[in-house]
Design goal:
Oligomer: single chain
Shape: globular
Number of strands: 4
Number of helices: 3
Structural class: alpha/beta
Helix content: 25-40%
Strand content: 15-25%
């Protein structure tokens, strides 16, 4: 499974811990604290099976984060918050 994570570098370890039981073949990480543009993540969305966001990123006004969320929604890619991820993996 290819997963994209949108979070701060600080929150990434806890999200990865929650994903430990999932067979992850690729992980794309968008650091919400990074100021430089870096990799054009929106081009990776079509190859993503699941998008996981830090809670504060779900309603982000940051252009890059909001663009990723809109594109995932447009392509019907599931978007889960960190808390929702917990609930989904428990079931």
């Amino acid at each position: 499974m290819c997963i994209m994570v949108i979070s701060s570098a600080e929150k990434l370890p806890s999200i990865l811990e929650k994903l430990s039981g999932v067979d992850v073949s690729h992980l794309y990480f968008h650091n919400t604290d990074a100021r430089e543009l870096g990799v054009p993540f929106v081009s990776l969305v079509p190859f993503t099976n699941l998008l996981v966001c830090e809670e504060s990123s779900m309603e982000s006004s940051d252009f890059r984060t909001a663009l990723l969320l809109r594109e995932a929604g447009r392509m019907s890619i599931p978007v889960l918050s960190e808390a929702t991820l917990d609930q989904t993996l428990i079931q």
